[in-house]
Amino acid sequence: MAKLIAQGKAMECKVVVFDKDGTLIDSRLVLLELAKARMESVRNNLAEKDAALWEKIVGVDLKRGRIDYGGPLATMPRREEILVAASAFYLNGRSWSEAKRLAQKAYDNADDSMKPPYGSVLLEGVAEALKRLKNGGLKLTVASTDGHKRITESLKALGVAPLFDAVVGVDDVVNGKPSPDMIFEVMKKTRAEANEVVMVGDSTVDMLLGRNANIRACVGVLTGFTSREKLERVADAVVSSVAELNVS
Length: 248
Known about the structure:
It is built from ten helices and eleven strands. It has 248 residues and is of the alpha/beta class. It has helices at residues 27-45, 48-58, 72-75, 78-91, 96-113, 126-135, 148-157, 181-190, 204-212, 228-232; strands at 2-6, 9-13, 15-18, 60-61, 66-67, 139-143, 166-168, 197-201, 217-221, 237-239, 246-247. It folds into two domains: 2-26 and 120-247, 3-Layer(aba) Sandwich (Rossmann fold); 28-113, no CATH class. The chain is 44% helix and 17% strand. Helix 2 (48-58) crosses helix 4.
């Protein structure tokens, strides 16, 4: 097997699993585009008072271009965030069933309005690093809380889709991160064993995903919103970005 090199450590493996947003992609730009689309859809499907409360409850301030990176929009899978949005509409006087219906409709319409790559921009040095690892004999995969279709369309629009052997989205599994389900699905698609897999991500949740699947190693990157100190508690190695990864 090839060896993934991170922070001077050589990790023998067959498959590397990458988180997407914050690891391969600049998550700040993605979240702003997503927030704008959902805000506009809430305005169109409900009322201005609903849009105002929606901003607060999901952690958005679009007038100032701010996102709470620890809030629902930034951390929750879509299906969970829809329930948070429904809570806002319920608090504004609608029945719970109506609030859920309207939230689902608003989010569906927002998604339909967005086009690939959905605000995604590759972080500096990522494309070169992916090619380096692929040419070195590693299988590259993605495990993301984004949906499968959005992941594949984004990677295709960014020109890196051919580098990946498998993609797993939140809609491909029963349980999202940090449950090991995504890693297990990657292992099934790549015919790999746990000790042949390394996880690379920007959050403690990504590291716990790998830990819960008992894989070879977990590598943290500092291109997201998690500090080195927090990542070092659960990662085997921490690097500034995916661009620093190498293979031997």
